[in-house]
Specification:
Blueprint: H1 2-10, H2 12-36, H3 48-68, H4 78-103, H5 118-148, E1 152-158, H6 164-172, E2 178-185, H7 191-197, E3 200-204, H8 208-220, E4 224-227, H9 231-235, E5 240-244, E6 247-251, H10 259-279, H11 281-295, E7 300-306, E8 312-318, H12 323-326, H13 343-351, H14 358-364, E9 368-370, H15 377-386, E10 399-401, H16 403-407, H17 414-426, H18 430-439
Parallel strand pairs: 1-2, 1-3, 3-4, 9-10
Antiparallel strand pairs: 5-6, 7-8
Helix pairs in contact: 2-5, 3-4, 4-5, 10-14, 11-13
Length: about 450
């Protein structure tokens, strides 16, 4: 009995968070089915409609929460978890609602498909209640988690050339997870003792030989190690374990998109960009009018960018800066509190609506929906000099969205953008494209996603 009590106490956080997660998921389902059953009597008792709808809801909920990250308590802050849960719940609700309305087209209910009847009002009310429930449970979950788990004592081991303060600022945004006790160089004489005194060890930009020694030290001392990704790490991220005779290997296959994948990707680009352009055409007309009334023509800003195999094309965006800035011979990216940005431009940048014309680039074949972000030509040359591996981004066609656009920010460093893009390229699949397209919607909840560069960075993109 005592052993069981000790085991429960040791895993109390996992048990409590699992209970909160279960209560939340059940609560979301009860809200949906409770409100939908008001007008749909088959949902009130065992029936084919109830079984089919429940199966659809559960399956979609599992897939969508997997795509968006689910109830990531203890790993992320409240806002990202709430936005991810909200998006996965919204997609699940809409798809299940559509399936239910299609099933209602029969002799006993509706003669035709009704999407915006009384049920739709209940759907809106359902989503509002679900959002309140999500916010409440996420806040409770993170509060409980961090009450039961203090921040882990963390040590940063860095290279002499590392911008350690920049790394510290990034990690300090998650100070409830990690408490940085000290920053030391990798060749410090007491590095082993420092590792022993901490729980999580961050290894940042270390020489390969030194990193391997320190990783072995962490492994021997049973310490958690977190390494900042380097190029070789990303290249091996999709490596498979291979045993030849009795010798273990890691197999890194040179990944190329197959003809079938290219065809599906291109057809998806055409279908999605075409449909979105048609749906948003009224919005685009209003945006064009707003730009013209504030600052005149031109409405569209064009700029040469680089895509697959170094090919150059002209990207189309709604103009967000003044005439002078847009027509400047030497283009410069937006900075913090940039006075060149117009009032309409500020709104377009925050909402990402300035990128809608890029759907025309996708329809034409210059770009794809998901891929590495197209860079300014001036920056490409500079980045290739600083980071020779930057050329690897040209293995795939430039895209509207991707890891760098979703996880990164406008002012993310070129090196980190490169790593994020290579993570996509080296792990490419059609399912990954679907997940990234769905996750792109969460960008609108990130207040810092369009943060400009500091003044010292003149030409970053």
């Amino acid at each position: 009995m005592r052993k069981m009590i000790r085991r429960i106490y040791r895993h109390r956080t996992t048990i409590i968070i699992s209970l909160i997660r279960m209560i939340l998921y059940i609560g979301l389902a009860l809200v949906f089915f409770g409100l939908m059953s008001i007008e749909n009597w088959p949902l009130r008792h065992a029936s084919r409609t109830l079984g089919t709808t429940l199966f659809t809801y559960v399956m979609l909920s599992g897939v969508m929460h997997s795509v968006y990250g689910g109830f990531a308590i203890g790993k992320k802050k409240n806002k990202p978890v709430i936005s991810s849960m909200a998006m996965s719940t919204l997609v699940t609700d809409l798809a299940t609602y559509l399936q239910l309305q299609i099933m209602n087209v029969n002799t006993n209910n509706n003669a035709r498909l009704v999407l915006f009847g009384v049920d739709f009002a209940y759907l809106i009310l359902c989503f509002v209640i679900q959002i309140v429930l999500i916010v409440f449970m996420v806040r409770i979950g993170n509060t409980v988690f961090f009450k039961l788990n203090r921040p882990r004592r963390s040590l940063l081991i860095v290279n002499h050339t590392t911008d350690s303060e920049s790394i510290r600022r990034k990690i300090n945004r998650f100070r409830l997870q990690w408490d940085i006790t000290e920053i030391i160089p990798f060749d410090a004489p007491d590095v082993s003792q420092k590792i022993w005194d901490n729980e999580t060890i961050f290894l940042i930009d270390l020489p390969e030989e030194a990193q391997m020694v320190l990783l072995k030290t962490c492994y021997a001392m049973q310490k958690d190690a977190i390494c900042k990704a380097q190029l070789e790490d990303v290249m091996l991220s999709n490596a498979k374990q291979l045993i030849i005779d009795d010798a273990p290997f890691l197999s890194m296959d040179y990944r190329k998109i197959t003809i079938g994948q290219r065809l599906v990707k291109r057809l998806t680009d055409i279908a999605v960009s075409g449909i979105v352009l048609i749906i948003f055409s009224p919005v685009m007309l209003l945006i064009a009018l707003a730009i013209y009334l504030e600052d005149g023509a031109p409405i569209i800003f064009r700029q040469k960018r680089m895509t697959v195999n170094g090919r150059v094309f002209e990207i189309c965006k709604f103009r967000t800066m003044t005439h002078e800035a847009s027509n400047a011979e030497k283009q410069q990216s937006a900075k913090e509190d940039d006075r060149r940005i117009t009032r309409v431009g500020h709104f377009l940048r925050r909402s990402r609506l300035d990128e809608l014309p890029q759907l025309w680039n996708i329809l034409r074949g210059d770009m794809t929906l998901v891929g590495p972000r197209p860079e300014m030509l001036e920056n490409v040359e500079k980045y290739k000099q600083q980071l020779p591996a930057f050329v690897y981004r040209e293995k795939m066609k430039a895209g509207l969205t991707g890891f760098a656009q979703i996880e990164g920010r406008y002012n993310t460093t070129p090196e980190d953008k490169l790593m994020l893009d290579l993570m996509y390229i080296e792990n490419y699949s059609l399912w990954l494209d679907v997940k990234l397209l769905l996750r792109t919607l969460t960008v609108f909840f990130k207040s810092d996603s369009t943060a400009g560069f500091e003044d010292k960075n003149d030409n970053n993109s």
